[in-house]
Amino acid sequence: MAQGEPLFARVAIIGLGLIGGSMAAAIRQNRLAGEVVGYDQRADELAVGVANGVIDAAAPSLEQAVTGSDLVVLAVPVRAMRTVLAEIRPYLDAKAVLTDVGSTKTSFVQDVEAVFGELSPHVIPGHPIAGSEKSGVAAANPELFVNHKVILTPADNADGRDVERLKGLWEGCGATVLTMSVAYHDEVLAATSHLPHLIAFSLVDTLAGEDENMDIFRYAAGGFRDFTRIAASDPVMWHDIFLSNREAVLRVIDHFTKDLDQLRSAIAEGDGATLLRVFSRAKAAREHFSKMLSGQAYVTNNSNKQVTFHLQPGGSVRGDIRVPGDKSMSHRSIMLGALAEGITEVKGFLEGEDSLATLQAFRDMGVTIEGPENGFVRIHGVGMHGLQAPRGPLYLGNSGTAMRLFTGLLAAQPFDSELTGDTSLSKRPMGRVADPLRAMGAVIDTAEGGRPPLKIRGGQPLAGIHYEMPVASAQVKSCLLLAGLYADGVTSVTEPAPTRDHTERMLEGFGYHVHRDGATASVTGGGKLTACAIDVPADISSAAFFLVAASIAEGSDLTLRHVGMNPTRVGVINILRRMGADIEVLEEREIGGEPVADLRVRSAHLKGIDIPEDQVPLAIDEFPVLFIAAACAEGRTILRGAEELRVKESDRIQVMADGLAALGVETTVTPDGIIIDGGQEIGGGTIESHEDHRISMSFAVASLRASGPIRINDCANVATSFPGFVELAKQTGIRITTEGSES
Ligand code: S3P
């Protein structure tokens, strides 16, 4: 189509109410069609449409409206569709696109099939999710669809070009267009729109009926007003909608009635635990929904969040800070707290998306969890056998730790479960946990190549095994130990090199004995966990960005408080010190079975080193930022034995090498590591983070020694492990700004 030519030559809007009128006005205002004609049975509405400039012309009959139009939009009540379709049928051009704006889609498709005998490729059902309390063409508003969703439900045989044109038309009106199946549309709308309207109508009617003078409403506060606003909607339209979307609405009413009954019984029986569980799960879901509201309703992942970091070169890093809680411990605190008997209170919990995914998954399995509020979480443990089957797949976002640890835990439950994740997680290897679990008797299906989603069959008896891990992985070890809690006999795991031992320590803290013998950890199944208090220290993996920042930037002096100093995690300090970093460890203490200290770090002249291989598992998450340290050091740094880096949230060897190259720093990539010659000039440039949080933060740190501005793409996932990174980085002296929305 030539540029500037409108998408449609002649659009007929049948039914000139609020939605039809607004659509006509938007099409005209944005010059999306050559001509917009309107038809309505109500001559007065048509006259207003012409007088207000909503339509170009009023058609005196349906025949005149439809004849010669290449787009016909039915904006009549859903119960009137079939009659109108029969009336326009003789005049509809065989190639004209036919769409509607009704709230129910199955009924529209049935009406079209009843009248035309088939669903032609030019029929594309639609539903703009927009409205107003006002009605009639007088209220038509060309801006009504701006920043609103429009759902199109084309059939498989729909003409692709027609779908694109209609999509273009709605986008031209300012809307965001989603496509989905007719059935899915009706299910989603039954749940999120139709049921709430039904409840609002019913509640207001019940209350009004109880008090004939309706005096009761005088005492109603804002909550009641908000909750029942939709009960003032058009009764005729809603009567239409419920009768048209009967099946889907009945299903969701039944579901709701059952849940309401459960609440009734809980109140009758004084069962506070159930009330608290349902309310806190709902509160969490509502808060999640509020965040989504500003983004993408009807889409549940983060794929549309776009965050870009912009860094100005130079600066030094100073101050006294505490980074957020340890990610590994936060995950484990929820898992063990949920399975314990009694109430576990957690302080310092990481409110990052990864650990929140774990928290939400346990809520989905019936565990009452209060918080998090400023890092405080209270978990009402359900005991080893108290988890309930989740209603759907458990979505674990970006978190490999959650998925691998859950697999062990769920393999031992009496119910089936399914684990899913975002694009990055969906590419990560899960065979490393599925294979040994199968050897214990678990039944687990993976997608091709051992990737997620994982389908775990419940009710399989597990037997303890001894497992020699081929890779040093704390996640695999932890997964097997968790499964081992439920297995018959002893489950033991030997690691080829020491990896983080938070699972072992925390199990002990919950009163579950873990036998340790050199490189082997074992548990005997059948025991129980007892609730305890957990104080999560600051995450050394998050502190690492600031350790490197203060080391490489001249004039820096920074104190990091309450950092977890578990010996299986301090590789980054060992490596940096070997490179000549000035890191003082102050106030060493032990809190809840984990060593903690304050760290004071000042700028230093770093030297390149051969990184000892035994440090690799102890610094596994810190290599991206250590590569930045290496680029700033004098001489050569060599890393070997780190092939695991290739299967993290991204291939961290290649992605870092590409990023460094974008800034003019050449490196040599090897299959299991990298060689970095320090001292090359770090220029400005654009970095592709591959949505990997640690890559984004590492290059933010690199700016301190860069000679030009750095732009880092796709940084939304920083929120998985380090919410508040940007503010803290700014506060200490890193010259960072963001573009886009960070949730
Ligand atoms: C983790 C273990 C490590 C680490 C991850 C957290 C854990 O993964 O990279 O960020 O909490 O157990 P691997 O076990 O795959 O090395």
From TrEMBL:
Family, similarity comment: Belongs to the prephenate/arogenate dehydrogenase family. Belongs to the EPSP synthase family.
UniProt keyword Cytoplasm present: yes
Species name: Marinobacter persicus
Protein's recorded name: 3-phosphoshikimate 1-carboxyvinyltransferase
Cellular location(s): Cytoplasm
Gene it is expressed from: aroA
One GO term (biological process): tyrosine biosynthetic process
Domain of life: Bacteria
Transmembrane segments: 7-27
